[in-house]
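Exercise: predict the fold of this chain.
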Amino acid sequence: MAKGLTSQSEDYSAWYNEVVQQAELADYAPVRGCMIIRPYGYALWENIQAALDRRFKETGHVNAYFPLFIPASFLAKEAEHVEGFSPELAVVTQGGGKELEEPLIVRPTSETVIGHMYAKWIQSYRDLPVLINQWANVVRWEMRPRLFLRTTEFLWQEGHTAHATQEEADAETRRMLDVYADFAETDGAVPVVRGRKSRSEKFAGAVASYSIEAMMGDGRALQSGTSHDLGQNFARAFNITYQDPDGRLEHCWTTSWGISTRIIGAIVMVHGDDSGLVLPPRLAPWQIVIVPIWKTDEERAQVLAAADRARAALSAYRVKLDDRDQLTPGFKFNDWELRGVPLRVEIGPRDVRDDKVVFARRDVPGREGKQPAPMSGLAEAAGRMLDEIQASMLQRARAFLEANTADVSDYEGLRSAVAKGFARAWWCGSGECEQKVKDDTRATTRCIPFEQPGGTGRCAVCGEPASEVAIFARAY
């Protein structure tokens, strides 16, 4: 049960750290900046993996695995890439008790080593496209760690593809961003803004980067997935070439894209409340928990028998029967509310006599979220309820995003808007205006949304002509 969770309104950051640990999603590791993902948190990650992996395979991608260690010389081949990652690198200089001839980088991302291998594997246009994904861990030295959001080591997937034309690579980059957005909204019930990153915010070595940006419960942004058009930068650095149908040697066009355990942090912060987690049914480790209620030994036997029948009826779902003897029903209610289980099924002696149960929705606290359901047809009723919860969570989160996104026309309006949410404003595209906003408000350009109003306007920062609207926000 939650041990006095700090309320979100009192200290949102403290609430987040407490709920992640008390709900047993993760804990701090002995090494600063690292985390231990506990079984409940890892079950959530496994469900995320399954939902994404299915989408990747439906779009023609296959899984592979590449080494954790990368020769230091590989990163140096792409100048912008090494410059962007240098402050975050972990470097191995000794192995087997000896000084290594060449230092090894602990994988911060895999464009370089995969580029090296693609140069060996790709010979002809017939070998293209190459569509590979890997599930892996990466290490980026983090100075200000926070569980799931920023840790020195984290889990993710990274897709790496090679194409014959710029058009194919660009289509791949946008397609995978759409895959991420569909997952976030359909499975995570997390509404996102899709768009292009500014030059200062793009991936080191990319021609263009795209992201999905989600709004957390405190109005801040969280970059929840990225997709990068690498142009021919890495293909030239690693000599990834193919022979076209006319026998000419051409450089490939490559992409990379990734989503990490950070998405767990997004799910926690978008949906959680002062009682703990509120997990979307499609991803929750337990979709349903059955809590039997009794006072006497006779009632116990009758209620547990009914609870067993309910569990059997609900076996198509991820269902848990909480038959712990030593704990009161009230304790169990609070415990499962903390863990965010979408649907609680309560069964007491009266329910047994009436051949029914009581549904309690996690997304609607208190008596308003409770309703009776007959034991006959229980699976169908539970399925409808889970679908309703999933849809309601997305609707509520989308309403929050829209209510806290302000269209602003001047700098004072922008400053005011980013204090509590997203500012949507015309931006001239200059780095100077971008830096001014960052210095004054700690907000950054999250993305230039794909959905644009059309026409032109005046930059909210400097007043100069602008052709695009950008999203500005403070971010995790």
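Check your answer against the key: The longest helix spans residues 378-403.
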